[in-house]
Amino acid sequence: MTDHGTPTPSPQQIFTELSVALTGFDRAELAGTGLIESHYSTLLRIIGEREAGHLFLAAAEALAADRRNHDGEALRTRVVENPRYAPVIISLIKLWYLGSWYPLSGGYRDVNGSTAEDVEHVVSPQAYREGLVWVAAGAHPMGAKPPGFGSWAEPPSMPVF
To answer: Cβ(123)–Cβ(100) under 8 Å?
Structure first.
């Protein structure tokens, strides 16, 4: 419980809330991809539970401050621009949008180590198909989802945000 009597969010709930803030897609849209658990597990495997715990604690505190202040500044300054977390944040955004993990920077790896999975790779066929880039571009993943007859003959329509 928090000091206000509300339940403490789980690490996966913090991951989801962080993903919402980083991607600009709401919780339902991210859940609709079917990838929250997969991306959460991928992050844990690559950076380790200890480092993920530090990231989630910083993110939870920053997101709570942003809810109070309604400005997004805490997440930006404490997490996104923090040299400790920035490489992870960049790879996480790419994971959500492109369905691929891109390796963490050499500087991050020098300080925090690395795992054998911290190499460029498509996480899964579903991660490619459900990448947020397709929705953001108003398009469909080539060869993975039927876009409809003749749909590639027209420019993609931009979704309204």
So the answer is: yes
Q: How far apart are the first and last CA of the chain?
A: 35
Q: What is the pLDDT of residues 20-37, one digit of tens each?
A: 999 999 999 999 999 999
**What would the pLDDT profile of 114-133 be if each residue is shown by its tens digit?**
899 999 999 999 999 999 99
Q: How far apart are CA 2 and CA 7, in angstroms?
A: 6
The structure's pTM equals 0.86
* Phi, psi for 80 (deg, rounded to 5): -60, -45
Distance CA 7, CA 9 (A): 6
Rounded distance, CA 160 to CA 114, Å? 39
Reading the block at residue 27, the tokens are: 């919780």
Enter the tokens of residue 11: 């690490």
